[in-house]
UniProtKB/TrEMBL annotation:
It comes from Streptomyces swartbergensis. It holds the Pfam family Fructosamin_kin. The keyword Transferase applies. Keywords: Kinase, Transferase. One of its GO terms (molecular function) is kinase activity. This is Fructosamine kinase. InterPro entries: Fructo-/Ketosamine-3-kinase, Kinase-like_dom_sf. The lineage of its organism: Bacteria, Bacillati, Actinomycetota, Actinomycetes, Kitasatosporales. Belongs to the fructosamine kinase family.
Length: 284
């Protein structure tokens, strides 16, 4: 098997004096100039290509800080290591403002992949198709919610009789989605594990599933799995770009997609959460 040090030397053109394995597919590698990078392995070339393109697209907005991409090939990605610090209220407000500016950088369409990114991408370990659409409710139902609902039903994670509640929500999305908004430039997998509170007082975002989408989706993901100082993040966001009226009532609608992804990957407990969210949205 190819050594991470050999990969980093080839992709960066620098000699590599040291390596520290972090997991089976992740290692920390020191370059000859003292910088430290992370090298990550993926089995599917489209996953590596999508992640590299997503990181660069987010970085191009010049808002939230993103680790530099030093190189990639079909199976390997090399990025800057982030020296982590501790979450603070000040950093959270700054992150909220920067995230709002990132979303405002926009995308060509809902479902648009990053430039040079493949249509067949990933969210975590789950395949995710970036297929452009014209209106958010129709696109979200067709390309985000229903594909994972069908997989969950096929696996038996969601029972066939239970799927109807999610299908009804999809039918009502034009009403439930709130005011129309332009496509935002989304991180796309913005759970707390992908939000790194760096030692310099700025947040770094890693492991994106970047695409054009609705800005409330990133915010709903932050709430779904918890985020330090989330209320301060939201305060900073609203200062920069106020959310449309009723946004708090739509959080569950936007959480349905990641919950169904987790149901496909991790089982029944997430399916039950997805069904509860769908019932609540319909009742509201």
């Amino acid at each position: 098997m190819t050594a991470p040090t050999d990969v980093v030397a080839r992709l960066t053109g620098r000699s590599v004096p040291g390596e520290r394995p972090l997991s089976g597919d992740l290692a920390e590698v020191t370059l000859d100039d003292g910088r430290v990078v992370i090298v990550k392995r993926a089995d599917d070339p489209s996953a590596t290509r999508a992640e590299a393109a997503g990181l660069r697209w987010l970085a191009d907005a010049g808002t939230v800080r993103i680790p530099d991409v030093h190189g990639h090939d079909e199976n390997w990605l090399v990025v800057d290591r982030v020296t982590q610090g501790r979450p603070s209220r000040e950093a959270a407000v700054r992150f909220g403002r920067d995230l709002a500016a990132l979303h405002a950088a926009g995308a060509p369409a809902f479902g648009a992949p990053p430039p040079d990114g493949p249509a067949d991408a990933y969210i975590g370990l789950a395949p995710m198709r970036n297929e452009p659409g014209t209106d958010w409710p129709g696109w979200y139902a067709e390309h985000r919610v229903l594909p994972y609902l069908r997989r969950a039903v096929d696996q038996g994670t969601v029972r066939s009789g239970e799927a109807a509640v999610v299908e009804r929500l999809c039918e009502r999305l034009p009403v439930l989605a709130g005011p129309a908004e332009p496509p935002a430039r989304l991180h796309g997998d913005l759970w707390n594990g992908n939000v790194l509170w760096a030692a310099d007082g700025h947040v770094r975002l890693i492991d994106p599933a970047a695409h054009g989408g609705h800005r409330e989706t990133d915010l709903a993901m932050l709430r779904l799995f918890g985020c330090p100082h989330l209320e301060q993040v939201l305060d900073g966001y609203q200062e920069e770009a106020p959310l449309a009226d009723g946004w708090a009532d739509r959080v569950g609608v936007h959480q349905l997609f990641p919950l169904l992804v987790h149901a496909v990957l991790f089982g029944r407990s997430y399916a039950e959460q997805a069904l509860a969210v769908a019932r609540s949205a319909l009742a509201g």
